[in-house]
Fold this protein.
Amino acid sequence: PFASAIACRVSSIAFASAIACRVCISCGVGDKIGVHFLFLPELAQESNPSDNARASTIFLNKSQTDVREKRRSNYLSNHHTSPGLSKKYSSCSTIFLDDSTVSLPNLKSTVKCVTLAIYYHIKNRDSNRSLDIFDEKIHPLTREKVPEDYYSVDPEHKLIYRFVRTLFSSAQLTAECAIVTLVYLERLLTYAEMDICPCNWKRIVLGAILLASKVWDDQAVWNVDYCQILKDITVEDMNEMERHFLELLQFNINVPASVYAKYYFDLRSLADDNNLNFPLEPLDNQRATKLEAISRLCEDRYKDLGKVTIRRSLSADNLVGVRTTHAVLS
């Protein structure tokens, strides 16, 4: 059982099996807990990328058409000219390193990649299937008058990024929360058999962020806190949207570590395909010392493991010492 579903920490973001999992859902004003039991069919999860690490992510598939067109146009434009270097490369005197890792991603770059994935979801959607709870025409997020074509024109990547960045900055959310947000978003689209489109993308993204922040962060952001960020939305509306979101997810908030890692590396691939490179910094003395310390720690652990293995195998014939390789960090 989960001790606290509103602000529970995902241990390596891997919960117990979702086949017979017990999860909690906030109700009322977000401070009461109700417990539900859920039995999910295994076959339905095998082809779902948000449940199965072997399935390909939806956003990466939707981006491939645009990526191929960009590569073709870049090839044609650079065919007769010598393109300049677009990346920093390490030389004999300087080494450039990317500090973003799967356990500690770069916040700004991760949010950019997640919003780009949402952009491709909207742009290359199959249809306009939606639900009333996410429709901004029925549940507007602002009292201000919006343009007439607001609900029919696909939003640009910059608009999506500004919306998500505002929420993450105001609520002080982490980069890991952004990745879990994308997992929940794709799970919603798959489970509910709906599409993310101009009229519902803000409320879908808001619901995914709301749930991901409660699952991931130790100090969860309450529903009323989001009402301070989005001035025109009510707590009752947030609570209702949260309940519907969890019901559409079939109360499956399980995010295995393998699924999280797959989404992280697919976001890295998406960034590389769209020239959204993660920031590279030159290696200085302080960072070199830190890397050396990490490498030495790993080497000592391997040596200790080798000694234990040899000690347990003294009775074996033709004993050969365990060979260890040096860890190379780049």
